[in-house]
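Practice problem. Given the sequence and the SMILES for S-adenosylmethionine, write out the predicted structure.
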Amino acid sequence: MGFAVPRDGVGYLAPEGFLPELLRELGPVERVLGRLALCSAPPAQHMDDHPATAFPATVFPAWAQNIWHDLRVIPFTSIAQAATALKGLGPRWALYDEHLPRRGRARLIQQRLRGPSSRPLVFGDPLPKLPLGSWTLLDDSTLLASPRCSSPFVHGEALFAEDKTGPPSRAYLKLWEVFTLLDQRPDPGQLCLDLGSSPGGWTWVLHKLGALVISVDKAPLDPRLAGLPGIIFRPESAFAQAPQAFGPVDWLFSDVVCYPERLLALVRRWLEAGTVRNMVCTIKFQGETDFQVVDQFRSIPHSRLLHLAHNKHELTWIWRKNSGDRIQDLFS
Ligand SMILES: C[S@@+](CC[C@H](N)C(=O)[O-])C[C@H]1O[C@@H](n2cnc3c(N)ncnc32)[C@H](O)[C@@H]1O
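Answer key:
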């Protein structure tokens, strides 16, 4: 086995293609299995050293799509014994086996467990109440298990029953994922500003929720959305929108394609104005990941950086004025 994880060790699962980003955030780790990085120290130990408003990358790495808490290393001699051990730790289990050269044994164990639902989630339906643990094999007679994972989805992959006809782009899935993880969404009648909105996937989601949407893009909005009651389209630059011109804004969204520093400046302008209550912004990287800007976003109080399952080479930054530090507890 050659690997000792303390009972409260932590595993961080990178999104596919982003293990280098995750390892850069984590620093030295004990071991890497596929795209799962194993660390011996629990986040809480790091947290004591830091003020609540500036959590370090190692506590909530942005590039971890799922966090495996309370790691257990369990030796076993039979498939039945392994399954019994897992059942004793939690009710539902997802097998992570990408890194295994032979997967047969692991799959025989998984067959004896209650697994995740294979049905995609319908947006708006509640998440399953039973916790979903994750496990894998370290070798043929040792399993590694986490009964408590940060994501309610298998390996952090949010799987929705898609709407193939309504939204004009697949970007709507990012907002469905954010609202599902937050368990919060704009209420009917709330004012939403959607920057970089075309062709209109996000505007479509917000309009469906009954929000009032000011949709801003230099490119046109899909004709099916343009002109609908409750949607005002402005064919302008996102960066030309002065906060003072709007009054209170319940939610500000940005999916603008721009350099991350430009988005950071925009966000700071809105924070200084103090007129917005919630922000959800996609940070889009061109070429190399800009870790310096990532850290600047991370250090903004009451915010959280995530790599959503539907993000590409992007991160999603979420800020909530009235969240206190609870936003840090979300998805952790
Ligand atoms: C990824 S797309 C947005 C997709 C959109 N959220 C959706 O759900 O369909 C990025 C958008 O940013 C817009 N954009 C780029 N620069 C902009 C600017 N300065 N002001 C406003 N929009 C801009 C582009 O025109 C493009 O429509």
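Check your answer against the key. The pocket of S-adenosylmethionine is lined by residues 169, 171-172, 196-202, 216-219, 237-239, 255-258 (CB under 6 Å).
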